[in-house]
Amino acid sequence: MRRNPLSVVLVLLVLAVAASQTLFTVHQTQRALVLQLGEPLQRVYGPGLHVKIPFIQNVVYFDARVLDYEARSREAFTVDKKAIVLDNYARWRIIDPLQFYRTMRSIPGAQARLDDVVYSQLRALVGAYTLTEVVSSHRAVIMKEVTNKVSALMHNYGVEVLDVRIKRTDLPTENQRAIFGRMRAERERQAKQYRSEGEEESTRIRSDADRQRAVILAEAARAAEVERGKGDAQAAATYAEAYNKAPQFYAYQRWLTTLRASLKDHSRMVLSTATPLLNQQ
Predict the structure, then answer these.
(1) Which of 163, 172, 169 is nearest to 89 (CA)?
(2) Which of 79, 121, 194, 270 is deepest in the core (most CB within 10 A)?
(3) How does pLDDT run across 88-125, given as a tens digit for each residue?
(4) In UniProt terms, what function does this protein have (predicted)?
(5) CA pair distance 53, 28, nearest whole angstrom
């Protein structure tokens, strides 16, 4: 009996459609639930090939890997009434797909709930510490405590929270401006103080230098007067000794000295021979 090719094709097509509606595969990074008329069955399907009732049951897949969620930045207040902007993230995974589907339905819904829980716990714990403790000394303790509390709260939703971390802590824009203003004012105050101290030290050094200069000049003038007095006394003694030895020669030498001093080079004078200056006996 000869078969109709069209009928064979139709049979194969029906078998392919039936197989696609009956068989489903779950990847090794996934877990799956089978919904029957919108209600999930109790079994959670792992990696492999599985069978379902076509057209009555459908499959919902869930990621079994560790998921990251970055929360939007929000403000919190420390115990010393300082506002701080927290930028945090969380690492979590689905541990009970059935409970997760009943409570959260989808990953975006779980992330929205996780965001609220993490922020409420962060705000509560940050409010118990000072700004310095949140930023530096107690940061690790806060993160560990937040992780434990959030994981306990999210466990009822079929979610395990592995880690909650603060990526960055900033101050609000208004606080930053105020802090920068105070820092600028403090630096200007220190600069003025350093300048005034420098001017005071400069004045002291300059005054001390002027005093030392006056002392040195006075001492030099005194020493010069002493030496000049000694020279004049020695010259007078020398003149007296020369006069006593040869009065006429001394007088003649003094007359020549006077002529040299009076008659300079290119000097022209008309004098009588009776002038005492020219009449040296």
Answers:
(1) 163
(2) 121
(3) 888 999 999 999 998 888 888 888 888 888 888 888 88
(4) HflC and HflK could regulate a protease.
(5) 22
Right CATH for 67-171 from 1.10.3720.10, 3.30.479.30, 3.40.50.12370, 3.50.50.60: 3.30.479.30
CB 52 within 8 A of CB 29: no
Per-residue tokens: 86: 């927290």
Which residue pairs from 120-125 have beta carbons closer than 8 angstroms and sit at least 24 positions apart in sequence?
121/146, 121/149, 121/150, 121/153, 122/76, 122/86, 122/88, 122/146, 122/164, 122/166, 123/74, 123/76, 123/77
pTM score: 0.53
The Cα 48–Cα 12 span in angstroms is: 24
Q: Which amino acid is at 103?
A: T
Distances (CA, A) of 157 to 12, 170, 226: 44, 32, 109
